[in-house]
Amino acid sequence: MMKIKMRDKLRKWREENFRNSEQIVDVGEELINEHASKLGDDIWIIYEQVMIAALDCSRDDLAWSCLQELKRQFPDSHRVKRLAGMRLEALERYEDANKLYDSILQDDPTNTAARKRKISILRAQGKSSEAIRELNEYLEQFVGDQEAWHELSELYINEHDYAKAAFCLEELMMTNPHNHLYCEQYGEVKYTQGGLENLELARKYFAQALKLNNRNMRALFGLYMSASHVAASPKVSAKVKKDNVKYAAWAASQISRAYQVRRVREENVKCSAHGITKAVYTVAMVHNVNIIHL
Amino acid sequence: MAEPELLLDSNIRLWVVLPIVFITFLVGVIRHYVSILLQSDKKLTLEQVSDSQVLIRSRVLRENGKYIPKQSFLMRKFFFNNQEDGFFKKTKRKVVPPSPMTDPSMLTDMMKGNVTNVLPMILIGGWINWTFSGFVTTKVPFPLTLRFKPMLQQGIELLSLDASWVSSASWYFLNVFGLRSMYSLILGQDNGADQSRIMQEQMSGAAMAMPADTNKAFKAEWEALELTDHQWALENVEEDLMSKDLDLSGMFSKELPTGIF
Fold first, then answer.
1. Given this model, what pLDDT does residue B135 score?
2. What is the CA radius of gyration of chain A?
3. Entry pTM
4. A207, B64: Cβ pair inside 8 Å?
5. Helical segments of chain B, H only
6. CB within 8 A of B14, min separation 6: which ones?
7. Contacts for A140 with CB less than 8 Å, ≥ 6 apart
């Protein structure tokens, strides 16, 4: 019974890409040491999952033993070679890891995993401009790789190149139109870029994120901030100003509602709803926003 | 109904009909596993992978372009369809129709296909014909004309016998085609024992592979993208959103809801 539960837990974490490496190592190590024979063919993918988690937790011994088992079973596999490369990366032997990945790519130029590991080596070494360049080349070939687009957007944000980060996020939004997190991140990038047009775009995308998921607090705050900034800008027409004031007011009321819900759930919450409404009022006053009813 | 019904020995049912069904089924299963063993790795070139992904991206742009701002949509459309150096206008792939002569891997694939499918069918059909000859096996439920007699009644030299009574060889062929659905039930879709599918593939021609198609696919995508317009889905999103209060249920629960997307 226990082992079935453990196996199902591991499978759930694997399928939903959780990164709870310590838990995986605990559960996986016990599963491997005690029930290895009863797992059948599942054991290989569990070895892979546990090995990656062990690398995260610096458990070299566990990683090494998993790798040995996999090497013994699949001696010529590219997938296992990539895991060996990841272990070398964890030990900071980047040159050796690079050589290993190059040998995989010589054998199979379409292998995306090896290419992505090389780019992450560059990122680990802190060479972000080279990583950006390599990632761009990779994406020219493999335009559909969403993980890579997201990584590139993160790299661009770190370099403060917001226009290009926005481009990457647009690719992601197109392929995942129902993912509210991409809309919200896009709104944040546009908000950071600044300028009236970008603020209006940001407001729209925060609203879209809220429409997709009503509980996204960050998008709600973003909506409030962008609407109030647009309303406060001197260059807008009266109608636009009125609209944005209305949006900001609505957002503020929803924020306070959310805090009410929180207060009702936990009676002894430290920050009272009253305090939050006061804070929202203050921010609103600064922006000269008229809050009708809170 | 008017002609006299023939009464067949029930031993025929036990020792002919059922064994033929079993034999056909088992041979099909064996063929499926043999085809898996003999399957050669299809190596895709980098260019093919890249092209297929570009086509997917263009299709996504057409379908979901309404979620990104108009400027970005136009920028991407321009990139693909620009007169002078748009991607679809500029890239011409080398078209090499893969005929069996020039492409050795195609040749081996064809041979393997033949060996696994056609050869056993002929062998087993002939063996059944030889073993179970000289008697009628079953009656098909619909009346047939006399033209079918030499085909379906091999080995039975009776001129007056109704053409509906068939020999064991035809029962075998009936099984080969009839057990297709059983195979998909037991071996899952896309199994190697499905003969009629193999024959269909052979008939649709060997030039079904990507190279010839890529140029045509690019042209089709270019036309489709030319026609698409940008209808921004976010035009009235604030009004839509603010028409009612937010649904905050389940907001602070401990369980992380994974079905958000």
1. 74
2. 25
3. 0.72
4. no
5. 10-12, 18-38, 46-64, 70-81, 87-90, 104-113, 119-131, 149-152, 168-178, 180-187, 195-203, 210-227, 237-242
6. none
7. none
Chain B residues inside the 8 Å CB shell of A193: none
What pLDDT is stored for residue B44 in this prediction?
Answer: 72
Q: Taking CB atoms and an 8 Å limit, are A142 and B245 in contact across chains? A: no
Cα three-residue angle A6-A8-A14, rounded to 5 degrees: 105
Cα nearest neighbour of B75 on chain A: A167
Would you call B261 and A180 a contact, using CB atoms and an 8 Å cutoff?
A: yes
- Cα–Cα distances in angstroms (integers) from residue A252 to residues A88, A214, A269, B15, B151, in the given order: 51, 14, 20, 83, 84
Report the distance separating Cα B211 and Cα B242, nearest Å.
Answer: 51
Nearest Cα residue in chain A from B258: A16
Residues in chain A: 294
**Measured CA distances, B23 to A20, A103, B27, B102 (Å):** 53, 48, 6, 39
Chain A to chain B Cβ contacts (< 8 Å):
94
Residue B215: strand, helix, or coil? helix
Query: Highest mean pLDDT range out of A152-161, B92-101, B111-120, B131-140?
Result: A152-161
Helix (H, G, I), strand (E, B) or coil at B139: strand
Phi, psi of B157 (to 5 degrees): -100, 45
Q: Which token pair is A269?
A: 């919450």
- Which residues, including other chains, have CB under 8 Å from residue A63's CB and lie 6 or more apart? A51, A54, A55, A87, A90
CA distance A68 to chain B (A): 26
Q: What is residue B165's three-state secondary structure?
A: strand
